Fold these 2 entries.
Entry 1:
Amino acid sequence: MLVPHAFATHLARTVELFRDPQAKTGQKAQFRALLALLKHDAVTVKSEGGRLSVNGTAVEGVVLEPLRQHLERHAVGELSIPASPPPDQLFQLLTALAGPRGEADLPTRLRASGAARITVAVTGQPDQEATPVTIQRTEEPPPGVAPTETPKLDLGTEGILRGDAVGDAGPGPSLVGVSEVSHEVPAPGSGKGQAEGRDMTPLLIKNQSPETLLAELERQPNVVNAGEVLARLALHVDSALRTNKIERALKVMAGILRCEQAVPETNRRQYAIALKRMFTRGLLEGVAHLTQLAGHQVDAVAVLQRAGAPAVEVLLDQLVASPSLEERSGTFAALTHMKEGLEQVIHLIDHHQWYVVRNVAELAGELGLEAAVPHLAKQLDHEDERVRRSVALALAKVGSRSAAEPLRRALKDPSREVRLHAAMGVGGRKASPLAMPLVVALEEEEDEEVERELILALGRIGSPDAVQALIRFAQPSGKLFGRKSTAVRLAAVEALRIAATPAAVGTLQGLSDDGDKEVRGAAVVALAQMKKR
């Protein structure tokens, strides 16, 4: 965990070293140390009233005074650095802080250098507080502002960006993303007509409810100041989380996702930036719990799916900690809809709690994770039959060539239930590598129910090898594998119906006048059902 005072000290020393062109060796060493501190933790540094704070913790000391002065010189009220920041972007920030104040403010210079993941909010300046008539504010401009400077705000860029970043400032991690999202507004020179031609002026953003903002954004998702609208919505999400109104936060997030989908992929960058800032651990945990509630499941799964790997981590933690079967089932269902970060599932197969291994094994099977096969194979020796049963089912559902040998072992398990689940899980053309292990298992199987499920599994596979084996089982004479009972033949007829290949159809037609009344009737019914397809 990052220690605020230690980080502030490192940052202060690094900035001082960057002021000395001759201190290359020291710069490199200190820069690496700073990157190491930021590897797992994001940081927000605030400078307010001559005091510094790091992640909400006040820090002070003589060694930090130069850092405070640098921030003050560049009019920095708040800067935030994400965990594992791009080294080149961190380098640009340090270089800018160590250098003199330029004509452009620090956010503008960082944006121009491509440092998009590091955000900076500047403190208010006299020329930034001037408000033109187009925003319809009632207060008078501050003293000392020349009238000629007010048209700058008519462009809808620099003044609006800075004013909103400061005026909206408040405690909370979600403010980290405000400035960065706002950086997406057009550059100066875009023209007054362009800004006034849009529906959303800064005044409308500042005074509207999240429902109204979402309605406006859904009406025009590619609006010129969409970045600022998203920043305002991020504040509403943060406020909802602070007051434990998770349902309201979910409603806003779901609305933003709808807007993002309405924008061409080439123009979604500001949505991606804003969403990444909003996908905090707290939000994802709250949304994950809503997957258990009817009426919220669809939106909750959509938000978690959009969040990707971090959401999978949260869901897996919830799966492990869920006290009831009902909760685990809801979490399990949500995980089956995830598309990223599923490699995290594999590591939990070796968990020390049996029910976690069982649930994760079933999940690996539902997701068809072939990479999980070696880990699943190890659990075939688990002492708990419930675990082995789920593992056998998972291996059958994966159905790959690598799963054939572990599945063969599962089909020899002393437990009838394990063997039954292994057979029941097999299905689909992708499982064709499992056909021969199933045929071999039939030679040794003595339980009639397991035997029937193995034969039906061959029908679901439907490969040429599987169908040929079924044809032999369905024949009226012979001693194939020593099993030619009516029950076996009836199971083979049903499996041929499932396979529905030309060879299977031909065999069923031949069996329609079989000497065994039950087999003959089953073949006729099977052919009739196949014609209805």
Note: Residues 4-123 form one domain.
Entry 2:
Amino acid sequence: MYHFNGLNTSLRSVGRFSPSNLSRQTRSLHLDGRNRLSSFWTPTQTGSPTHASQEDSHELLVRAGFLRQAHSGIFHLLPLGLRVQNKIEGLIDKHMFSVGATKVSLSSISSEELWQRSGRLEGRDSEFLRLQDRKGAKYLLSPTHEEEITEIVANAVKSYKDLPLRLYQVTRKYRDEARPRQGLLRGREFLMKDLYTFDVTEEQARQTYDQVRRAYSAFLDELNLPYLVANADSGSMGGNLSHEYHLASANGEDNIISCKQCDYSSNEELYSGFLGSQELNHIKPSTEQPLGSLLNSTSFISKDKTTLFTVITPSQGGPLNIHLLKKLHPDLDTSIEDPIKIWTALRSKSLPNLSETHIIDGRLAHLPLANPTGSTKTHSVSLTAPSETSTCPSCHRSGSLQTSTAIEIGHTFHLGTRYSLPLNAQVLSANNKLAPISMGCHGIGVSRLLAAAASLLMDQKGLNWPLKIAPFSATIVAAPAASAEDVAKVYDLLASASQQGTGTQSMAPLDVAIDDRDRPLGWKLNDADLIGYPFILVLGKAWKARGAVEVQCRRLGVKEEVQLESLVERLEEMGKKL
């Protein structure tokens, strides 16, 4: 038989179970209304990785305690990551309010029937995460919400007097990526802001589109990061007008072609291959350079395996522009690795309806390149990717184009009646006639933006957040010589300045955290660098000797002493650059 009193006595006699020792081994929660890291969960992983020079931004976000992977392409956000996400959402709310948008929250589950009606269900089966209820009804986890929001508006809005209408949400989306990669940049579950606009006429819808574009630029300006806006292909979304918004990054998957002399900017998928007059007729064969040495030829086969395409370009022209080729010849299959081998096998069987086509680059139009065994199609454009000598399609200046790698974080689409017609979203116009609503759809990848910002500013010490979306604007780190009262004094000064609205339009209110964890000063400073606070405020030797705060800002390369009475002003001054 066990006696409780005796057991209790025996446990207390073992030192490691005593209440006093237990209290020294657990976290201390200080509930005084101040942001304290002792009360905030920051599960950073200590120590430097063995491959620090190759550590990517996703690995760094995990090591710095912002997120953890749950499954392939699916992630949990931890407190630090959630603070960044919430700040991005707060900025989005601000700029959506500026265009008169109202926030909604739509279900993540969408009916397959709606997608069938819009015509978007077919051909995209592999993208959907599907589910079916006990009654056999079929649903999707929504990758986007055009169908659902159009259905809601179609049932609620009947008159032109109810428009314009602008509705947005920030919600989880789902896509069954074949190869999830780069963490939050290419996941199967992601957070997006999508704004849907509804106007009476096409003209009004295009005016709305321009307003949204300006709001997007204002939003990105607040982040103080280099970004690109490019003409884009609308793809499966529909419509004939769209723009992409990118953060310039060496780790990006998109190539943006822009002009150094004008405002031309385009995704490589839309690049037209424009040729300037100086690029025409300049290739001339000679005894030293026979025609064959001036040409490159690349073979492809058609999707139905009945036509062999031979693309002929200048030998100095660079790689082929595959996007343009597929646009000019939709039946051309670029995925076949050895088209000549396949074509030779087909020819040996003497199959009917086989043909050959030569596709000629516009720079070779003046040369005798007729196909003796088939047809010849000469285009008036360059069939190779743009180079430093290419001509801008907009201002027609040569040598002005440049290609930048970038991460797409937003997209605006003018949809017109792409969804309102099949889903019967129409209103009674001023002349008493039913007319389909003209729509727009405008997205920002919230989780992509978090990952892209991390990728863009990281260095070997850790992350480096833009001030407006940093988990905390600053952390206060004190040496043993500084008292708890000293730390509280600095914190309260900064908190008071924020509450009084001292921050300017370009400077976010200071959001400060005290690092009061029971750790050495050096450990705290390394941890602060890893997490990427814009400012680290050290109360150390300068504080003890002169009452000065050591301000560290790694992004600006600043490490200086600032007197307490000048601290707010100095942080605001530096904050304008962050």
Note: Residues 32 and 488 are 10 Å apart (CA to CA).
